[in-house]
Amino acid sequence: MFIIKSLLLQMETILAPRSLSSLFNLKSTLQQNPTRSSNTLTLPNPKPLSCNLKKDSFFQSFSAIPTNPTWFSHGLAALAISLALSFTPVGSAFASEFDVLNDGPPKESYVVDDAGVLSRVTRSDLKNLLSDLEYRKKIRINFVTVRKLTSKADAFEYADQVLERWYPTLEEGNNKGIVVLVTSQKEGAVTGGPAFIQAVGDTVLDAVVSQNLPVLAVDEKYNEALYSSAKRLAAAIDGLPDPGGPQPKDSKRESNFKTKEETAEKRDQFTVVVGGLLVIAFVVPMAQYYAYVSKK
For residue 156, how far is the Cα from the chain centroid? Predict the structure, then answer.
């Protein structure tokens, strides 16, 4: 009797309420008939008590846990999506050259830094320089940076596309200029309307495209590349002397191989040294032997 009570008290903490109800009824029956011994106890269910307890406790304890494998896979997928959304920046994470085209020209500045390479100081300097130029000369220049191009072959085609999309008519784009810098390709392009091209001149346009933008972009000096280009374009529009730009670095590397003349000179020196050693190797022993024989 004592063993059955202790077993019931232990199983109450792990069994579900549905399975415990039958056990409590059994416990009350045992308390009403204390004269019966454990050997003569008769239960409504002919199965052994230990087997019933194990079976009921197993299925009742795990009945609330889903066993469908699709539930586990869906849960992992939902967790992965939530983590991705939590660590993904909102807004500029999926920006591309298409967003630049669709958003149109900047309203409060002169820069669309899609590549995210310009500092706050450079943005401010460009705004002061270009706003003053637009106020005095009625020519507006916009600067665009992108990481890479997927829709166009090079920066020149993309610059023309930006100009046509932002300023679809000749009246709107006549005095507008577009400067594009592609950071991954280390190249840039300058385009604009007829009034802009005439005010700047082909010489300065070619110099900016071949010097300021690519040379400084190779060294990842993107801020200096755009600001020096802006100063050079503004000087041309104002009719001032060209401030110039950085010159391409000579990428020719020194060779570790000897030239033909150096090789011939080294060969002659080697021949003299080897010949001298051979002479010493033969003449000295012969001279010693002659001296030895003459003494006798």
Answer: 25
